[in-house]
Write a structure and sequence with these properties.
Blueprint lengths: L14 E13 L3 E8 L2 E8 L5 H9 L5 E10 L7 E12 L17 H6 L1 H4 L3 H23 L3 E2 L5 E2 L10 E5 L2 E5 L4 H8 L5 E9 L12 E10 L3 H22 L1 H6 L15 E3 H11 L14 H11 L3 E4 L21 E5 L2 E8 L4 H10 L8 H4 L9 E7 H9 L20
Parallel strand pairs: 3-5, 6-10, 12-13
Antiparallel strand pairs: 1-2, 1-4, 2-3, 4-5, 7-9, 8-9, 10-11, 11-16, 13-14, 14-15, 15-16
Helix pairs in contact: 4-6, 8-9
Length: 432
Amino acid sequence: MDDRTYTADAEPGDTVTVAGWVHEVRDLGGIAFLILRDTTGKIQVKFEKDEMDDDLVETGLNVHRESVISVTGDVEEEPRAPTGVEVTPASVDVISEADPELPLDPSGKVDAELSTRLDNRTLDLRKDEVKAIFEIRAEVLRAVREQFRELGCTEINTPKIVATGTEGGTELFPITYFGQEAFMNQSPQLFKQLMVGSGLEQVFEIGPIFRAEEHNTPRHLNEATSIDFESAFSDHTEAMDACEAVVKAAYEAVEANCQDALEALDLADEFEAPEGEFPRLTYEEAIERINATGELDEPLVWGDDLPTEGEHALGQDVGEHYFITDWPSEIKPFYIMDKDDEVSTGFDMMHPSMELVSGGQREHRYDHLVEGFEQQGLDPEAFDYYTKMFKYGMPPHAGWGLGGERLIMTMLGLGNIREAVLFPRDRQRLSP
């Protein structure tokens, strides 16, 4: 529609054609109002029954909610209208009629269960507060890419169909690939490491990962978006610096550019980008502080992974984004370099409510890498495409992976990670 005007651009004195969805119709007797909604907002269309053609009035007032229409008419100032202007229609064209029985109410007057919303995602995103989540998500990804480029990174795209899993184990989705067994990739980890050994040196990727974990919690997905970073000639501390910069850039961009979306989510007054350096606690300090809270039935000891309730207790104690460093070697993957026999260079970056990032300096020495495979019960020969490149001059390097949906979930205080995904995939949901 070349002559279409967005509702936000309609000015008094203009003659416009606006198009969108019928948000609601209010019939007050001699006068009636239709609220038309498009991606920029809403506009009121006024029908004065005694002064208008009967067919025009009938078309405008009998159309069902959520039908797609176009309206051509004059824009007039009207302080009592929702946006301060209204259109007096010369014509109304019903482009696509909606069924009168809607599976959910896009106006938001009637709440719907999350499962109903996800089953009808197209309708769900017609609600301002739901659309706002994905406007913010888009801005986060834009800002993250920009920050990576400022750090000197090249964007890469790695395979999502692989012959072997990144970390082995059972958390893999098997597929048949031309008669061979293959898997959906758990992580770009091995491929991004190979790239730092190339001429690219510093790389990032934003893409899907697949984990066949049988979780059914508000913070786990089986298909997620991973934001990955890897840098040659960097150690774990420099990787943490980059991680902090990327997360801060995401928050700062949302604060600067998404005020309307934050307003729709009732977050405009309280949303603040983090300031100052994120605290860095060692693993030993973390378990000591968790134990001191008294929130766990049994105190944590060296070598324990942090349970969810422990993460929550520590998050409440710290009160801001923070890192946990110096994890035990025995509970970090084979590709994480060790400082000594007990302590690794592995780190996690945490929001007060959950883990967002896992990273560390990588093992770049061939013999040590193969030894790590064997210690974790993995066959180095199955990963020959990866390990052999470490014979040809692999620099020291470090990196991390950040859960994109978890970043959005924690940033906006969403109750379920599925709210941050257009079409989530979990144990129960394969469609839509």
